[in-house]
Amino acid sequence: MTIALRKEPMNDQLQLSEQMSAGSASLRVDVHGSEPREHVLDDLSFLNYRLADVRISPVVTLSEPDIVWHQDRDKAVTYDGRTIRFDGPWPAGPIQKVIVAMLALRMEAVGLHPFHASAVRYRGRTVMFLGGESNHGKSMGQIEACRRGALLVSTETTVVDAAGRAVMGSKSAFLKKRTEGTERADKAAPERGVEKFFGAMPTWDTWTEPSEVDVVVVPAIDGNFDPSLAEMIPFERQFQTLHSLQNYFLLNELLAAGWPMPIVDTEPLRRARAEWLTSFTERPYYFVRAATPQVLMDEVDRVL
User: Fold this and answer.
1) Type and span of the H or E element at 212
2) Contact by Cβ (8 Å): 44, 175
3) Mean pLDDT of 128-152
4) Percent share of the chain, pLDDT over 70
5) What residues form DSSP beta bridges with 229?
6) Phi–psi pair at 297, nearest 5 degrees
């Protein structure tokens, strides 16, 4: 829900209180300043790409804000263990990244774990392509699986519940536009890989029911790789999975020149996360090297 308040002479007036939800998790953002504001963000495409299905709630029910933004103060960003506070004129990019991190924490608190991973329903099984340490191939693997008849579960993000079921997922294969403050010259055009490997983006149908993640594939696509498939040992499974889960907390993130992302993760949260993934990683995991997505899926087909 958006609550827009009329403009007052005070330059620190509360202008907006907005609540966002992903699954059963919710987060509240309060914006203060001299100018009225209709929404915290004008575009939710990045949030949906990163957290599957983010909605503006029809009613603000949370008693306290998770993010507070004072627009007319000197620029700063701080975290007190509960609330992130932005001061000053921040562009939308850093704001949306912080919303992702804080909402991911709230999701984890209600037993929802966002994975940096794509997933498909293929040959009667749910297969997750995990974006682990290297993150080379989860999108191309998903696209090739769908070319072979798989149903799409998720693209950039797969949300898994406490029981190990994929319950939500993003549906856009690529982020086609980067918001101000997050531009990247080192990122290739979103569909360049598709053109190289497939010629054109294929179409697919979706799988919408919650489903147990049956198999996890950690892909590594590189034009120089000979094909290989290896079942992963427990340490490798947990190592790669923790990389995937930690991706949402922006521990290596520079929000803007001179301003690193505040550390929102804690030792108790990391311990709880590691304990949960110990049970999640008991399912089959395979590390697959291949020169192309087609060869990758040929290797995966051998174990399905």
Assistant:
1) strand 211-212
2) no
3) 94
4) 89
5) 288
6) -70, -30
Nearest to 217 by CA among 206, 230, 227: 230
CA distances (Å), origin 157, targets 20, 34, 51, 139, 189: 18, 37, 6, 10, 20
Among all chains, which residue has been given the structure tokens 């827009």? 4
Would you give the end-to-end CA distance of the chain in angstroms?
A: 45
Report yes or no: 298 and 286 within 8 Å, Cβ to Cβ: no
Q: What is the mean pLDDT of the chain?
A: 90
For 260, the token pair is 């690193």
The C-alpha atoms of residue 73 and residue 67 are separated, in whole angstroms, by 15
pLDDT tens-digit readout, 188-209: 555 666 767 777 778 899 999 9
Closest among 248, 286, 255, 290 to 269, alpha carbons compared: 248
Structure tokens, 26: 């919710």
User: Can you tell me which residue has the tokens 């949906």?
Assistant: 48
CA distance 36 to 249: 30
- Contact criterion met (CB below 8 Å) for 40 and 176: no
Q: Which of 204, 230, 240, 220 is nearest to 292 (CA)?
A: 220
Residue 190: CB atoms within 10 A of its CB come to 15
| CA distances from residue 165 to 115, 123, 236, 273 in whole angstroms, order as listed | 12, 17, 21, 16
Within the chain, how many helices (H) and strands (E) appear?
7, 18
Residue predicted with more confidence, 195 or 247: 247
The answer to whether 158 touches 115, Cβ cutoff 8 Å, is: yes
Three-class secondary structure of residue 250 per DSSP: coil
Give the pair of three-digit tokens for residue 205.
Answer: 């149908």
Under DSSP, the state recorded for 101 is H
* The pair of three-digit structure tokens given for residue 273, joined into one six-digit string: 């996360």
d(CA 100, CA 249): 8
User: Mapping DSSP to helix (H, G, I), strand (E, B) and coil, where does residue 295 land?
Assistant: helix
